[in-house]
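User: Here's a chain of 299 residues. Predict its fold as tokens.
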Amino acid sequence: MTTWWGHFGLREPPFGLTPDTSFFFPALPHQDAHETLLYALSAGEGFLVVEGEVGTGKTLLLRRLLNTLPERWQAAFVPNPGLDPRGLYAAIANEFGVPSDGTSEDLLHRLERHFITLAQQDRQPVVLVDEAQALPADTLEAVRLLTNLETEKRKLLQVVLFGQPELMARLREKGTRQILTRISFHAALRPLDRREVSAYVQHRLTVAGREDALFTWWAERALWRVSRGLPRLVNIIAAKAMMLAYGQGAPRVTRRQVIAAARDTLAARPRMSLVPLAWGLGLLGLTAAAAAAGWRLLG
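Assistant: Prediction complete.
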């Protein structure tokens, strides 16, 4: 039995929701953030922040960074920020292969010794925290204590926080301003514009095995409008639209199928994209009425 993606000549589904780095699309905001992160880390900057709305591609950028760090870096990834200070230190210790038993103070001293050993080997540890806006206040302070670890020449640890815009709001609060003053690099991921959405869609289709266009021009335009340029929403709506086209036996995805898919997606904005269609239908109605009146007048 042919799969819905196989119907369109694809080897695999092109619009999955998992952060698969093989599908990473170097859109301008993401590519700039990725290159600047690599530069800032190589320059020894201690505290870095990447913010973006839900669905802008922060986690995929994080995983892309993990996969492209030079060999001298040793990275720890913390996907679950809802931890108390000891839980955070234990999670980081596990990532670095350090024993994670004991109190918070025990773990901090153990991590410091590990980081000193890495520095002696000319290696650099970095901690990447996803969904950092969810870090409790005392855990944010624990992160700050980690960045205090340094020698006379360099920071022993670098930290990159990935989070929603609420993260920056929290860092501006009175109790966390010390962290704000330590941020040496900050990037904000914006949604994709119309042309970027079109290129994004074609890029993912190409990676999945199709070179020619699958979505019509009007379908791509509608996809941009209903998704607001958010990559996650683009993926959800595009996949649903493809399934609808497959169910109808259509060779390509049209605007009608994109709008239908958007109606089935709570976070989408389907009504905006229907305005041009409603206007067009209204215009056709007026034209038809005028034509009918003309025929009566001529008669």
